[in-house]
Design goal:
By secondary structure, this protein is α/β, with parallel strands linked by helices. Helices cover 38% and strands 16% of the residues. It has 15 helices and 15 strands. The longest helix has 22 residues, at 306-327.
């Protein structure tokens, strides 16, 4: 199979779909990899590094899309990239379609087969291709929040961990999943006063076991969110409903009632955000104010640390890339129902139920799509 790796073009996105080590693996299996020039520059990898492991380096994204049978990316395709996709092509990347009707429409129109990292599952019900980036985003959220809390950056002027004689900042983490737990871990490590909200009692028990008296756990209700938001200096939104738009858990009225200079970091923004006042930002201009509350809503947070993120992502995606290349997408999805859960668009149909529901498309199951492929 011919596998294409274009350079990412989202604003200040420096990750790349495959590392040279990953390319070496699939070339060893007998496949051809076409890499756009400077695709790996953001992680310190040169064209020569890719050529040394057998990749073919080309000058433009158009050449990559034209020659490749499967495109491996990191971020969702931009509209000009969607226009280059073909019905006989496979796209394997993060998609986050539910809050993005324009991208969904473009992918449906292209006729391509689009498999989303974020909806591939594992035996234990986890999302193995989302997990590494959730870990990175969770940890980054505290760094970003601590920076935004500084007065010169619009914050109230609090040090996250305080100092002897001066109390620490109060951090509220909404959602105790992978990103929320990693955010809490970082905040606890910096000495903050941390509260975690979640709707799963077993999860809350697990988190309490991990940190004991170093964290407060609360069952998540509207009342708890409103109460704790007004007491918090930093709120981390870390809620995920796989493949679907994130629920709006912090209302605009609650934001209005919060202390001026408080900070909100919305990790859920790539699924539409879990604060009513959220809208996506970029690393070029990451924050904005609503009622004097700082909002950090960068939709590709892990892109800030592309080297760590790319290696972590390739570790997770490589077995699936190899399966798709070795078997072809139809047989790979038939052989692995967890990979089949990643199928979001196929031959002009939306094949992920939550996306079809949220955006008003007729739903065709992945099972049915495979029958007619």
């Amino acid at each position: 199979m011919k596998i294409g790796v274009p350079k990412e073009i989202k604003t200040l996105e420096f990750r790349v779909g495959m590392t040279p080590a990953g390319v070496h693996e699939v070339v060893h299996d007998g496949h051809e990899v076409i890499v756009e020039t400077n695709a790996g520059a953001g992680i310190g990898m040169t064209d020569a590094d890719y050529e040394a492991v057998g990749a073919k380096v080309v000058g433009t994204a158009e050449e990559v899309f034209e020659q490749a049978e499967m495109i491996v990316k990191v971020k969702e395709p931009q509209l000009n990239e969607c226009a280059m996709l073909r019905p006989d092509q496979v796209l394997f990347t993060y998609l986050h379609l539910a809050p993005d009707p324009k991208q969904t429409e473009a992918l449906v129109k292209s006729g391509t087969t689009a498999i989303a990292y974020e909806t591939v599952t594992a035996d234990d019900g986890t999302l193995p291709l989302l997990t590494p980036m959730s870990e990175v985003a969770g940890r980054l959220s505290i760094q970003a929040g601590a920076y935004a809390l500084q007065k010169a950056n619009g914050g109230i002027g609090k040090l996250l961990g305080g100092v002897p004689g001066v109390g620490p900042a109060k951090v509220l983490v909404i959602g105790g999943g992978v990103s929320g737990a990693n955010a809490a871990d970082m905040a606890i490590g910096l000495g903050a006063d941390v509260t975690i909200l979640d709707r799963s009692l077993p999860r809350l028990r697990h988190l309490d076991d991990i940190w004991g008296g170093r964290v407060t756990t609360r069952f998540s209700t509207k009342h708890a969110i409103e109460e704790l938001a007004l007491q918090s200096d930093l709120i981390i939104g870390a809620v995920l409903v796989a493949g679907a738009a994130a629920p709006k858990l912090v209302s605009a009225q609650t934001v209005k009632d919060m202390t001026a200079g408080s900070v909100m970091v919305d990790i859920s923004i790539d699924q539409g955000g879990c604060f009513e006042t959220s809208h996506a930002t970029t690393h070029a201009d990451p924050t904005y104010l609503v009622d004097d509350v700082v909002h950090y809503c960068v939709a590709n947070m892990p892109g800030a640390v592309p080297r760590t993120s790319t290696f972590a992502l390739t570790n997770a995606t490589l077995p699936f890339v190899k399966s798709l290349a070795n078997l072809g997408w139809v047989e790979a999805l038939k052989a692995d129902p967890h990979l089949a859960n990643g199928l979001n668009v196929s031959a002009g149909h939306v094949t992920y139920e939550a996306v079809a529901r949220d955006l008003g498309y007729e739903y065709l199951s992945a099972e049915e799509a495979l029958k007619v492929a």
